[in-house]
Amino acid sequence: MKVSAGLPTGMEGLTYPIPFSDPQAVIDIALAAEKYGYHSVWGNDHMTTQHYVREEFPTPPRFWEPLITYAYLASITKKLRFGTGILVLPMRRDIVVTAKQICTLDHFSGGRLELGLGIGAYREEFDALQPDSPLQRGDIVEEGAHALIKLLTERVASCEGKFYNYRDVELWPKPLQKQIPILVGGNNPNNIRRAAEYGTGWLPAGLHVSKVREGVAQLREHCERVGRDWRTLEVAPQFICRIDRNREKAVADFEASQMYKHLVSLKKSTLKDQGAISMTDSNLVGTPAEIIDKCNALGEAGVTHLLGIYFAASSVPDLIEQMQLFAEEVMPHIK
Predict the structure, then answer these.
(1) Per-residue pLDDT, 267
(2) Strand-pair partners of 266
């Protein structure tokens, strides 16, 4: 099973305090991920401050654009891969420019780019960037994914949609990789269907192992319907981690973190179907032995990649210490 780490490109105020993610901190976390053997780092994509963050902090958060951030990080790393977890297509109106950035980054990184695509957790961001739009974000993602794939694969591409339009575009060069991984982000069943239809994997977030198992079963059904081998697709959920040799301390630190507040804010959107399942049980919180058991249970449920693990931490040194502890005491024991 692959294991990757979350990178705080757009996480100040949401999952970490302000200040947290200055450029050097982001660099240090990426270098630590490579040092400790993580497969990749995954940064998120935000353009404007969420309402609840504005209410809590007097200073705006720093949200770094992930593709540009990766262009720099690729120049100072050798093996580390870079993923978007997720690239929010409804906030990116010009899909041709986005495709050009993707192709350029894939070449200059030596083919180390991966894509997660989705609608985004906060409707309010879309409303700020696309005021009064009558379109549904899910429809935009579906249209945008097809528009993007055409640009990445066809010699000359055209698209005439409700949100994306271009004609007779010869985007060259194509990506360096024969196929850039494209994972469809989101817990909603529609995103499982989308992953089966045109993605290389499914990227949910914060799901209990029982919900992961249900999602994998749906993914298999959709793949059979469209004639794809479900075993060729990644199942790559994101989780929050707080690891400590003392379980009570791990739980207390998790529940006291800004990360925990963020999960609470998602109960009406991303995590609305979790029901009575506690966030501690759904995520990788506890002792190394407990987390090993959780990871292996997820593997048995069909998970192939623990994607962009976000460590609940109060400071960057604390986060890097968490990364090291997980790498040394958990990763060697994951099947």
Answers:
(1) 72
(2) none
